[in-house]
Amino acid sequence: MASKPVTVGDLIHRVASSCLSNRLPCNYTLRDSVDSDQDEDEDDPFADFADAVSSSDKCRRSPSAAGAEDEEREEEEQKLKIWQEGEEEKEKEKLAAAARGADRARGAEELMAEVFDAVSGVRRAYAALQGAHCPWDPDKMRTADAAVVAELRHLARLRDRFRRSAAAGHIPRANPSAPPLREAVAPYEAALDDLRRQLQSKQAEVDGLKEKLAAAAARRNGRHHASSKLNGQPGGAPTAELFTSCAEQARAATRAFAGHLVHLMRAAGVDLAAATRSLTKIPVSSPQLAKHALEAHVTRAFLGGFEHESFYLDGSLSSLLDPAAFRRERYTQFRDMRGMEPAELLGVLPTCAFGRYAAAKFASLLPPRVEEAILGDGEHRRVVNGGAHPRTPFYGEFLRAAKAVWMLHLLAFALEPPPSHFEAGRGAEFHPEYMESVTGAPPHAGAGMVVGFAVAPGFRLGSGAVVRARVYLVPRGGRP
Question: Does 421 have pLDDT greater than 60?
Fold first, then answer.
C-alpha cells in the first residue's frame, strides 16, 4: 500500500498535538495568554516549538551552570586563602630576619666595644713603656713591655674570635673596602718593634758605659800601681809590672771604643753583621761575635806599626844613634803625658807626634763610607785631614783609646830590652800560658779548640814575663 505523503503541515500538527497532550519539563504549563496570542502563533507556526525547545534546554543547563559557579567561587576562595597564608609566612620571615639582624648587630657592637677597650689598653701600656725610658728604669721597662705584649695578644684573640664568628655567620662579614683589624693593629706592632730597637740601643749604650767604667777603673788602678812602683824605684825606672798594667789599660780602652762603635752602628740602623764583615773580613754570625770582631779590628788599627819607634810615621832612627838617651826621653814623655787629657794636648799642639799618630790611625780605622753611615757625614775626616782634631764626643772616645796605646808604645821603647809582641794565627792550637779566650776560660780548651781569630796581640818581656794574647776560640774545623 502506498504511504501517504508527509507534509510540513502534518509535522506541525503532530508537534502541536504532542505539546498540548503532554506536560512540558520544569512544570511548564500553558497559560491563557496562549489563547490570546493564538493569532500571532498562527502567523508564526514555529514559535511554540522554538519556545518549548529553548525552555527545555534552559532547564537542562541551569543545574550544571550553578555547580560551575560554585566551583569557581570555591577555587577563588582557596586561592585567596593560599595568598593570605603566603603573605603571613613572608611577614614572619621578615620579622625573624630582623630579629637575627638585631642579634648580630648587638654581637658586633659588643665585640667592637671590647676591641676599643683593648686598643685603649695598648695605649696605656705603651705610655707606661715610654715613661719607663725617662728616667731609665729596667724593672719598669720589663713590666711595661710585658703589659704591651699582653694587650697585643688580647687584640689577637679578639681578631680570631671575630673571624670564627664571621665564618659561623653570627657576625656579618666586613665590607671588603673597610680596613681589616690587622691594619688597625699594625701601627701598634710597628711602635712595639721600634721600642724593641730602642731597647737594644739602650742596652748597647749600657754595655758601652760598663766598658768605660771598667776602663776608667783600670786606668785609676794602673796609675796608683805605677805611682807606687815609681816611688819605690830610684830614679823612676820603668818595670815589666808597669808595662803589664799599661797593656791592660790599653786593652780596656780599645774594648770600650769597640763597644761605642757597636752602639753607634745600632743607633744608625746599620746591619752590624754586614758592616763588621766588610771591615774585618771575618764571617760574623751573632752580635756578640761582631763585638769581638770589631775589637780585633780596632786593636789591629791602633797597634799597626807598634814595632817601630814612631809607628812608621817618619824615618827617625834615634833608638839606634843613642839608645840610652832615647829610652830616657821616651820614659819622660810617658810620665809627662800620663796625667794629661789628650784633647787638651792636641788643642795646644795639634801636629805633635801624638797628633800625627791619632790622625793616621783615624784614617785607617774607619773607611769613609762607614764614617758617613754611623756619623752622618764625613766632617771628622775633613777636619783631621786639615791638620786639626774635632771636639766631638765620638772623637773624644777615639782619643782616649789612642792615648792608651800611645802610652804603651812609649813605655815599650823605654824598657831595655823592648818587649816583643806576638799574635796567634787562625787555626793555631790554644795554649793557656800564651793565650786567653775573650769568652772566658773554656772547659777542656786543649781538646779540640783552636783559634778562630786573634783579638789582641801578646807581649813577651825581657824579664820572661808574658802578657797573654786575646783570642776567639772555635771548635777544630769550625768557623767563627
Answer: yes
